[in-house]
Design goal:
Length: 123
């Protein structure tokens, strides 16, 4: 009889631990989405690399419990993943735009330097 009670207790602990772990993955995804929303506009290239790695790590945790989630939880996960992807896409676009703007300014400076240097020859 004690063996059966011990077995039931062990099973209950495992079930509760599993529920906690799957909820932790969702909570991490929600926290990450909030972090991106609040701070991503200040990210540099290294910050975005770290964010990408963190996103992959969190989504792997979420996928680990994929079969255990309810339809409502899956919907919430999808929304959070979409938000994260949106912030990351916007950040990538902004970084590319900034880089192109920097390259354009550099090219403009080169052209001005060349025209200043050779301006005397054309007069």
């Amino acid at each position: 009889m004690k063996t059966i009670k011990l077995f039931i207790c062990c099973v209950m602990v495992l079930v509760l631990a599993s529920c906690s772990a799957k909820q932790t993955a969702i909570n991490q995804l929600e926290k990450f989405s909030t972090e991106l929303r609040d701070h991503s506009r200040y990210y540099d290239v290294q910050d975005w690399e770290k964010a990408g790695q963190k996103f992959v790590k969190i989504t792997k945790k979420v996928k680990k419990y994929e079969t255990e989630y309810t339809a409502e939880e899956k919907s919430r996960i999808g929304r959070l993943e979409g938000e994260c992807a949106g912030y990351m896409a916007r950040g990538a676009k902004d970084n590319v735009t900034d880089r192109l703007r920097g390259i354009f300014n550099e090219i403009q400076g080169i052209i001005e330097g060349v025209t200043d240097a050779f301006g005397d020859l054309w007069k």
